[in-house]
Amino acid sequence: MELYTSIVDQYEDFAAYAAADSPCFADWATRVAADAEVQAWIAELPPIKQQPNLVFAAARWHGVAAPGPYTALRQALLDDDGTIVATISRRSTQTNEVNRLATLAPVFARIAAESDRPLALLEAGASAGVCLYPDRYTYRYLLGPEKTPATWTPGTSAGELTCRVKGTFEVPTGSLEVAWRGGLDLAPVDVDDEDATRWLETLVWPEQDERRARLRTALEVARREPADVRAGDVLTELPALVDEASKHGEVVVFHTAVVAYLEPEDRRRFADLMSTLVASGRCRWVSNESKTVLPTIAATGPDIPDGHPTFVLGLDGQEMAWTHGHGRAMTWHDIP
Ligand SMILES: C[S@@+](CC[C@H](N)C(=O)[O-])C[C@H]1O[C@@H](n2cnc3c(N)ncnc32)[C@H](O)[C@@H]1O
Questions:
Q1: What does the DSSP 8-state code read for residue 112?
Q2: Burial of 113 (0-12, 13-18, 19+ CB in 10 A)
Q3: Could you tell me the distance, in angstroms and rounded to a whole number, from the CA of residue 236 to the centre of ligand 1?
Q4: What whole-number distance in Å separates Cα of residue 306 and Cα of residue 190?
Q5: With the CA atoms of 226, 183, 129 and 20 taken in that order, what torsion angle do they form, in degrees rounded to the nearest 10?
Q6: Whole-angstrom Cα distance, residue 53 to residue 93?
């Protein structure tokens, strides 16, 4: 999922990213990449608004059926009277995927084992904050080629999050103590706002009813124990919130599918900021971003095969695993 490239590149990249999970979106994206008229329509949008996820979700919001034929999407965009554009302008891609916790929680457990304090979880780009509750699920790992099941419940359990695992992975044991949950987002999603949570559901890809059900459960979990997610830009507001969170426990700043939304120069600034915070002992840093987004972290792990769409999970700047973008699978690597 690469933003800030040409429209054709973005839609081709998205088609590969969605291929295994959404035949409809893979088809739509492939066809947009070959449709000069629709590309010209998309080119009128500001660059950050040209993303396939956002354009497709806005079309669905206004009644385009998905799964459904590309011709209906095409007609809706080209005939738009400004309604779809208004939704694209007003809303953004805030997809909140709780299954990403299946890949993040083992790293949180490692940090907890290295600290004598409970965790203060600070999510950069939290959306509705559903990933702030690692201690509220059972993790079901399917290990190796045999997919041997193993579970871990580090607290109470509102449901199971499943992840296939390859590589040298040890299923964590024991509990996770979380003393504080909070974060930053440019536009935090209010879990009690019906319109806002319906938009989150629309962002889930069409064929993925299971993800939509999981999102509803995750929103319930978040409603029961509200997290302290504040409006703010991670590039400017993070250090102050890190210091505030440190009063509660060992601060873990984490982010998934967020840094991709920063301009390339700001991605470097963000990585520098995090490296400085880690070097000064103010927090730990768990990153989980698409492979090209934080290249210095990806470079500390094995070479990623061309054409393999993956996220890269890192701890304090060191690659730990390749992860599926929605947390369904991971390939774990040894940390030196
Ligand atoms: C795709 S969502 C990911 C949400 C969540 N991290 C997850 O993995 O489910 C990206 C989120 O990052 C937020 N975001 C993007 N740029 C940001 C910035 N500069 N500061 C704070 N939040 C930002 C967006 O508002 C959005 O809610």
A1: H
A2: exposed
A3: 14
A4: 39
A5: -170
A6: 7
- How would you list the strands of the sheet with 119-124, edge to edge? 148-152, 138-143, 160-167, 329-332, 318-323, 311-315, 284-290, 250-256, 119-124, 178-185, 228-231
Separation between Cα atoms, residue 288 and residue 256, nearest integer Å:
5
pLDDT, position 4: 67
Low-confidence ranges of the chain (pLDDT < 70): 1-4, 334-336
Which pLDDT belongs to residue 25? 98
pLDDT score for 79: 98
146 and 86 in contact (C-beta within 8 Å)?
A: no
Residue 238 is predicted with a pLDDT of 98
CA separation (Å) from 167 to 83, 153, 164, 208?
48, 21, 10, 27
Helices (H) and strands (E) in the chain, counts: 12, 11
Contact 58, 91 (CB under 8 A): yes
Residue nearest to atom 16 of ligand 1 (CA): 261
Judge whether 245 and 253 are in contact, CB under 8 Å. no
Q: Is 235 in the pocket of ligand 1 (CB under 6 A)?
A: yes
What local confidence, expressed as pLDDT, does residue 291 receive?
94
Contacts of 18 by beta carbon, 8 Å cutoff, 6+ apart: 25, 26, 29, 205
Q: Is the CB of 133 under 6 A from ligand 1?
A: no
Spatial separation of the C-alpha atoms in residues 15 and 332, rounded to whole Å = 25
- Close Cβ partners of 185 (under 8 Å, ≥ 6 residues apart): 94, 125, 126, 127, 229, 230, 231, 232
Pair 116, 176: CB distance under 8 Å: no
Q: Supply the pLDDT for residue 336.
A: 46
Q: Ligand 1 centroid to 149 CA: how many Å? A: 32
